[in-house]
Amino acid sequence: MTHPPRRLSANQLIGANFSFQHYPFREVARVMRGFGVTEIELWGIAPHLDLHHAGPARIAEVKQVLADHGLTVRCFTPEQVLYPINIASGDDAYRQASIDLFRRAGNIAAELGARHLFLTPGRGFENEPAERARDRSAEALGLIAAHAANLGLRCLLEPLQRRESNIAHSAADLRRLLDRVGAKTMDVVLDTVAMACAGDRVAEYVGLFGDRLAHVHVVDGTPAGHLVWGDGNLPLAGYLTELAEAGYRGALSFEPFGDGSYALDPVTAWSRNMQAIAPHLEPRKVSA
């Protein structure tokens, strides 16, 4: 007798402000609550909450908006793939300033009551051995993770595509970097596009990281891109089934911003994602 495939829970699905950068944060919170989520991944960008301008008044405003809509922050994800933020930079001044900014990001995440601070490896100069950049990245990640741990936060580490970084692209790269950092409070992100571009499989992430696989970005691609489910050709339903069969209990979030039209109509983009994933999740359980 065959059994139906296991499914993840809708309770694992959280919201985010990806694609909403041209909308006020209060509108983001209203839309996300309307989708039935109670937690969000907060992308740290202007005008919502960026590292360069997030003073006490702005942080207090974001906290109030979250409270008004019954939302909590699962992880704080500062924008970090573009300069001037780069924790592995070969320029000492930029690198130190970036580390300082991420210490500040940890302070903000703790103030918001987040569980995780979201990190990426940074990138080195293309005309130097990649090993030098990996050393700088590992040292910086260790410093940031230690600061976050003192605040009661865990960190998340996500690999990047080659065009974004020359440090860690695959699950194996990420495992080596994680071991080099040596922080027991650092967990791992599986991004379906990054995984596909690296030629990896869900089983490799599960086997290499076990319970430290704590967050999944469910994004479509060709294989690259940050597309809405159905705008690419990745087997997202299959990935979710594999995660469910492996007993994955972490968060799921969407990250649609590869197509400029998403930012013009983010509600439609998110509605399409929510409709596409719904058949693959067990219904949300509401606490009594």
From TrEMBL:
Residues annotated as domain Xylose isomerase-like TIM barrel: 35-277
Pfam families associated with the record: AP_endonuc_2
Gene3D superfamilies assigned to the protein according to its UniProt record, in alphabetical order: Divalent-metal-dependent TIM barrel enzymes (3.20.20.150)
Keyword field contains ATP-binding: no
Keyword Hydrolase: yes
Recorded GO MF terms: endonuclease activity
Keywords: Endonuclease, Hydrolase, Nuclease
Protein name, UniProt field: AP endonuclease
Organism: Cereibacter changlensis
